[in-house]
UniProtKB/TrEMBL annotation:
Protein name according to UniProt: Antibiotic biosynthesis monooxygenase family protein
MF annotations from Gene Ontology: monooxygenase activity
Residue stretches making up the ABM domain: 24-114
Keywords: Monooxygenase, Oxidoreductase
PROSITE patterns: ABM
Length: 116
């Protein structure tokens, strides 16, 4: 299973589920060794198909870092923190998450849009 790290050590992602809000954006940056990139993306696509069918899912995009970067970033929009938490907690999602190699590091964080 990928190793989860907090992007903001003062606000771990799982603590963010305590705040009931929406719509939200899950930004998840992955550090993926270059030799694992294609295998990671194959697993991620399988997981993404599952998530797209879940209640409250809105959209998803994957981005790759430039200039030979080892970073991949998933940006997913959900109707609410509750919908995301339910999808992440499902046994099927948990089984798929366990398939990711231990040398992948994931930095997930939940955001909400603000006016600027």
């Amino acid at each position: 299973m990928a190793k989860l790290q907090s992007l903001d050590p003062h606000t771990p992602m799982f603590a963010q589920f305590q705040e009931k809000t929406g719509p939200i954006v899950l930004a998840n940056t992955f550090v993926v060794p270059k030799e694992r990139s294609e295998a990671f993306l194959a697993l991620f696509r399988r997981q993404a198909e599952f998530m797209k069918a879940q209640p409250g899912f809105v959209s998803l995009q994957m981005h790759r870092g430039t200039a030979g970067s080892q970073l991949l970033m998933n940006v997913a929009v959900w109707e609410s923190t509750e919908a995301l938490a339910t999808a992440l907690g499902s046994p099927e999602f948990q089984r798929m998450a366990a398939d990711f190699p231990d040398d992948i590091v994931s930095y997930p964080h939940i955001f909400e849009q603000i006016d600027v």
